[in-house]
Model the fold of this input.
Amino acid sequence: MSVRFRFCNSPGAEFHFRALEIDCTTDFVLHTNDDLIETVRQPFEAETSATVFHVHEVMRIVLSQLDLTDREGFMMAHSNKIRSKFERLSYHAASVWSDWGSAVDDAGGAISTILQRMFGVRIRQNGWWIPHLEYKYIEVDDDWSIIDDVVTTTDLLELASSEDLWISMDTGLRLLRNTVKSDECSESLSHFFGKNHRFSSASAWLQWSLENGTRQELPVDQGTVHYYKGIVNSEIPRYFAGQVGEKGPYESDWWTQNVNAPEVPKFDINGKPWAFGMLWKFDEEGRYWAATYPHFHPIEGGDIVNISGAGLKLIIKTDAEEIEENELGALNVRRSLSSHIVTEHLRAIRVLLIELGHALPPITTDSRIGGLGLSGSKIPSPFSDMYFLNPKKGPKLGVIIGSPVETTLRREILRNNWYVVE
Amino acid sequence: MAQKQIFRDGNRLGFLPWGTGSRLGAARWTDLGRDALGELSAQIQISNMIEHQIPNIPVLFRNDTTYELPESTLGAHFTPPQPITWSIDSMDGESFLSAGFQLNVRGVEASRFKLIAIVEGATIKRYECQIEEKENVQLDSFTVRVKPNLYNQEEGMCVLLCNTEQWFSQYYQADLQKVELRIGKGTHSPKTKKLDARNNTMSFGSSFTLSLSKCLHEESDLAEIKWFTGQQVFTAEVTLDYTEMNLQAISSTGCFDPDTIQFTELYAGNPSDEVFTTLELLIGKTTLHGRPVSLQITTPTASKLIEIIDPRITIPVKREKLLDWFDSPSEVDPDFSYRRTITLTPYIAGKALRDLSSSAQIQLEIPTRPSLGFQGEKNVGWEKFLLRPQGEYNTIQNQHNIANLFADEDWIEEIPLEKLLPMNRNNIYRTICKTLDLPPETNCEKTTELLNQSFIYRGDEIIVVFKSGQILDEIYGGKKGIDIDSTEVQILYTRQKFQLKYNGDEVAIDIEDAKSLSREFNSLAVLISNGNKYHPRDMAFDYDRMPEAFAYRANTKTFTAPQTPGVYYLHVPSKGENYLVELEVHGFIQEMIE
Done:
């Protein structure tokens, strides 16, 4: 018996594009913040360098082709299934575009991170994701809306011309001109950011905290009390918690042990003066300064008001569980909530002092947002302020930086965080 | 439905839109009423609880002098400065205020008066003032040796004998009242004291037993001693000599291992907690005179005091820390912008011994930035450009139609990638960047004159004049050695001599096949040097390009750079291997040539 082997040509670009269901001649513009790399027309063309946009587009193709599972009334896809399909399409993508691996890394690397950073996908527990298969937009201003669905760009170009789309190769952000979208698929920016469900001002947050905190004595073994100054000069106040955590309150201009120091603001709330303090203790194991027990200190005497997460009696519950008084949720969620609450307090004080004319407010055209204490997660996702605004280059680049909606969104995010901006 | 909901006292207040671990997002307080969320809440005001601060004023005054009192309080963050109303209680003297703020001091020695500061109708501060009238007599400065107290059981105590003698043209009464030794802000009383006067010569004596912490002063070794008599204060500046305390025994040395970090490795990599180098410390002693020794480590971003338990300490330094250091402002000298210094200062008895400080340095090695051959229009930062991944270089290269260097040459595949990639990167940089305001292409008048004297172009050869060529070599700093494997751009001056080296040894060149290449891939044979002439072997040599040609002298294995400044690639075959060196020939400007 003999076997005859015959050499065949390996599949060409046409085969891979067919597998991706992409027409390589599709003509639209990919924009970039990179001053050395030009905008790209025909971004799907063979040999083009792959970008975050290409990774998102392949992920959109994956999500639009998957059989979704009905869970809790939502059509969901699981990470494992997405990963399997994405890896298969990655083979084809890497065969037609260069630097596919770098682009996947820039988009987040892991499947869950790529999905978490994309618009048009919402995370659920245990590896489940909800892709928005139907048209969905977040209206940013009179001209543009963020595309918050996984409709592929090829399909989108049937609805809109290339001039009606603004797509970033650096971040994958896709914008659609308002004139070509239907209103019923849109939600407002305020709705997206939950503006009506946030405290409307720094004063409102501080008053609510004081009214709902716990009156008590400070513990004696949890560190030394230091009081927050709120501002250190008349510039835009920027507080970098990481630096104070490293150097400690004694070497920080922002904190003092002397509650009567003139730099410590005393807040007139409900007719009484209060200062804001925290207990600082050096964590020998972690080699950093830990701040706990955020509290209002009554200047005229009496018990402090503990306004930590515990002091405010805030409990985090997952919806599947029953409400029990002592249930505090997972430790890391509790810690994050505590940190979040402290960030809110410190920012509220800085904003208050800006409102009273003791310091300058941030400017919407200034991309430097470090130290402003913007709320939300530091993990890149559409639920993080930093994800939108981070001025740093590379994978950390804020999703709207360089886009036509940059200033509008920065203004909205600053306002959501109580800053008074023009 | 949200994953993480916020409850308080059994009532749901809202939810967190992102529920896993630290990914909380901003809270949505969906179940709090509009009132609680502050639609109607009033602006909180700052209550002015700040005590007014009066600028410092002295409380000891001399008779018959005037003093301007401050007119307003010191302003604070939330308290604007307020005018001060002064009043005086003259008590047993005759001091008075004029024009509101001028204090006129009148009274006998030791008489007292009170100043009262009133702000916004309230008395803020009272000052108990006194008239002091002793005459100050300045003594010559002298040195006091600080010695360990060998007879005291308590460790860390020191003895200071402060004795001096001085002749005066007038007689002073030796009615000694007290002696004070002032070190820094501390004032100390003596264990024994004496003052003798004989024939206008006065002998001042006192001994002090002080703890080491009180003897040491961080700012300087200077102290002041005062002998008080009934009518005078005799004051002398004293220099404290710590030789017998053997403080140098606790001096320390430190170094980084490694002490050089590659720029691209530091900035382009991950993760942040990777240990990049270690700080190796060696401290002379862990205790001195019974006191534990500490070490203050001052880095570009922080200062930390560490206890010394072992005289040898190894401290790992992570990437994150190095990034902080190199992102902080550089040292004063801009030539050292890629160098950072940490200072090691021994501490004993709570005091820093700054005279014994030492330092350790860490250097960031950054590839040399091209300086010549720019053709583009962009102003691109070199450091930022270096950190781009290879994929981005490819994209830029494709978009600007920049060909790979010497792709058609048959030897190019023998050149290792680690050498080719930086050359290609530099070529892209030159192609897209605009010319520097002051490109280093020009020679100064003296250099031009020396070049014209040293290299005389005669048709098909260049006559070399040894003497003036030697002067040129001297001002260039002599012959340069170039590592043939280096991935750096090599900088030479016009007609500077250089040798190619491999592991420190000179490389034998197959000069017949060596050639220089321009960025446009035009090749040119290397001229042969026989001592007083350069000439080509190849009859087809383009004689118009003589100033662009390298020359080579085989017996000394020495090259001479081209006379025309510019970017050159020197291809040199050697024993079957192919080497490629990227060179920039710069002009030389040195106006002061003797």
Summary: The two ends of chain A are 85 Å apart (CA to CA).
